[in-house]
Amino acid sequence: MDDKPRHLRPRTAKRKVIDATDNDSVVDSGTKRRRASVREPSSTAKKARKRRTSPQDKGAKNASPSFYRTPSTKRMTSHASMINQGTVVYATDMEAQIAAEARGVTRKNIPWDTFRSIYLSDFGAKPQQELAVNSVRKVGEEQLFWGRLRQLLSDEALCDLKLFYGGTKTLPDANKGKEVPSKPDFVLHVGEDSPTWADVDLLFEHTRSQEVVTKKFSQWLRGAWSVFHHQPFRRHLYGIMFIKPRAYVCYADHGCAVYSEPLYFATNIQHTQLLVDFLTWFIANPGYRGRDPTVEKEEDWTYIRHAGTTWAELPKGPLCYRPCLVGRNIRVALVKDQGAKFPEKRVVMKSTWEEKLPPESSPPSEVEVLEILLKANVRGLPQPCALESAIVRDDGNLEVETRSFPENCEVALSAPNTNLMAKMQASFVSSHTSKPLAPGANVGEPLVPRVKIQRQQFNEPLEVRRRLTRVLMSYCVPLKEAMRSRGPESLMRIIRDAMITYYEAYKLPEFGFIHGDISIENILVPVEGCVLTGGLTYKDRRGTLIDWNLCFNAHGASSSRTFRSGTPAFMAPALLQDEPISRRTLGHDMESFFTVIIWIATLDFTDEAAFRAKPLATVMLDNKKTPMDIVANKGYWFEHRGHFMKSVTNFFEHPYRDDVRFLTCLFKLREILYPSETSDLNTFLSSSFGKEDNKVTEDADPMKEALFRECMKEIDDYLHETKGRDEMQWIDSNTLARRTPESLVQEGKRVD
């Protein structure tokens, strides 16, 4: 050790470290403090003296009260931003999003034999050369954790991996406690000495205090979220939590997040051997650490082996990316066929972890839905390529799936007593699919979904199995991008043609489908060179639809998913209310088409701030607005002509606000979808006491086909065309006899 006084010793150079709050994943370590090492022990008292002061010092005087400002001016969200409202809490920080994604699909204290059989089954026979058992036991001793861990996991022992220390950032919060660390304590990584999240293969968490395990697990999940965010093709991730005097092995994929029973590795030789076995297996088997073996990264290019060829994801190819720790994890990108097996020039690859539904589920998964639509010759969809290979399989021809759930194990992330964190979409999005609040906005930073759920629902265990799918299809332009240089007539033609495709998918198959998630993001615009199903081109269909993962059966009455699914900003108000509904109808999706028209007409492509200040965006993009807020505002805007003009059409951009015929068409659509309430006493009494008559009238058109047809006519009239009505008539004439709940009842009566 250097004999010079401490303040005269040369400072060590700052290293690059991982930071969850930084977009580039690497920042200076100015906010870090080194741990005690073998050469330089540091007492608790010395650490306490080095702690930073609270945000009230002059360096943070201009900071927002909901943030802490660190010495490097990096900002961390404080937990004070949560708003507790009885049994419901709203939160927008990362912890809330993680808790929302992992609700019900976490498990804790899994017996080791069960954990090994489910989550370590890929690892084969243990290599002859293993880590020293005594060295592992010493890691669990009271002092010098970092130094002993570094001795255990030396460069020679780690082969292609490296051990990196991220440090711990602590700041006093309102309760004089610790903020959640912004970086993992330790990681095993590949690549250079200064790793980014894209290099991480194993996450460690460590504490000497007797912390609640679930709290540390939540911190581990925060690091895991960042790893999955920066490694979009990762299939699963391992980790270890060292919590004095125990160790827990962690696992997360896109279907579950779990940790094992405690291993008392410092005192129990059997537990020590189990930990040694895991680390030895992990180090010796690079192919089973969780990275996708079909994906290779070379500089700015990503190469994916799929459907018998290699696809190159273009450097600026990603069109949509919604990272998700435990969820669907959608990535859509432009790809190029390196093997020239497919003739299409511009192809899109949509990679998702779709929920695996049972064979008898109704409706089936998106891949099966597309197969049914193609078999029925539904025209105008982006032409899929190699759909038979869309469900990814491993070398053994088995579907690539998330792991199963252990029996009789408790949920790991339970609802806290004071600050409940859960997601709003639980009641409104199919099963456990995670969708942003308003993805169609595509403006500014990605929105953290608002969260809302009852506390008693949080602890319910769920078992969600997912499988990896890669759907290839011909490229079409997103609606928002296509409308940058177009006007109202082009918009209505795109919507009209998308409605035709929608109606074909509803009518032509024997068991057709209702899309169920009409939004600005799921309507595309075919361009020259685009290949559509049925031999159509962009001249035949100006608009089309994608993303059928939330669709419903054509009769709308039976489904394996909740009726209240979709993108909340575009959903019909009736679907956002707590009142029961009997089925999904064409009318619900027609209301979504109507909202898409309004959204495009309101968008300001040159001034994001101006768009966000408009009433529509203010309500739909506010993280703390509830579904009932959306219902109340849509009712206020749409059901009254004056309010519709004052709060909606007056905020249209000039190409739309100046088109009288467009405004007239929009007002007529509004009157069809949201007819005005009458104040006539007889009507009131009839609606109150004449329920039987109303029921007969309502059942005459249970799917609201007449309403859909009437809206199509208004759009045709605006365009001075009859294409929409002509196409619907052709579709009706080619419709197969379909079995619906009503027809089955009639057949039963005839049999009797």
Give a brief outline of the structure.
The protein is of the alpha+beta class and 752 residues long.
Query: What class would the helix/strand composition place it in?
Result: alpha+beta
Number of strands: 25
CATH topology descriptor of the largest domain: Transferase(Phosphotransferase), domain 1
What value does the Rg take, in angstroms?
29 Å
Number of helices: 25
Adjacency order of strands in the biggest sheet: 7-13-12-11-10-9-8
Tell me the distance between the termini.
97 Å
Biggest sheet architecture: 7 strands, mixed
Per CATH, the superfamily of the largest domain is Transferase(Phosphotransferase) domain 1
Q: Which residues sit in consecutive blocks of at least 5 with pLDDT less than 50?
A: 1-92, 168-182, 417-452, 693-697, 741-752
What is the beta-strand fraction?
15-25%
Q: What is the global morphology?
A: elongated
CATH architecture of the largest domain: Orthogonal Bundle
Fraction of residues in helices? 25-40%
Task: Write down the CATH class of the largest domain.
Answer: Mainly Alpha
Whole-number average pLDDT? 77
Count the domains: 3
